[in-house]
Amino acid sequence: MADRIPHDHPTVESVRATLDRVGRMDQPKLVLPNDPELFPETIVHFVLDGQQYHARINRKYHDTPEIRSVRDNARLARAGEGEGEDTSVNRLHEWFETNDLEFGRSVHVDVVEPNHLYGVRLPGERAVYTDIPKPNSSLSDIANNLE
């Protein structure tokens, strides 16, 4: 059975992030603290409301890390927002709407394992994460080179 890790475990670092708007359609994005060690530009496992998805951490504007979409799998996260014929659900937008959130609001991002597993929750909420084993580094390198 996989390990379960609560958000307040000593190995989990919780940081504050901001929900901001992007684009003409007012889509949400998650603006992260500018810490390259915690938020490198890569595809990561990302948990919203207890469900595990994938997200791409980008550093596009002013080198500030952000997440613009959360997708059901790594392939969709790798494809990026608005590229090609992506008709998959943006789970970040879904979470934003379901929780009736507003732009400018702060949320907590739990760094369960930097460069691998993250979660987001509203202040005051509790979260428990399931440890996801890291892939073999050589397989991960192959996948990254395919981008």
UniProtKB/TrEMBL annotation:
What is the official name of this protein in its record?
Uncharacterized protein
Provide the species name: Halocatena marina
Q: What is the lineage of its organism?
A: Archaea, Methanobacteriati, Methanobacteriota, Stenosarchaea group, Halobacteria
The record, for InterPro entries, names: DUF7112
Q: Which Pfam families match?
A: DUF7112
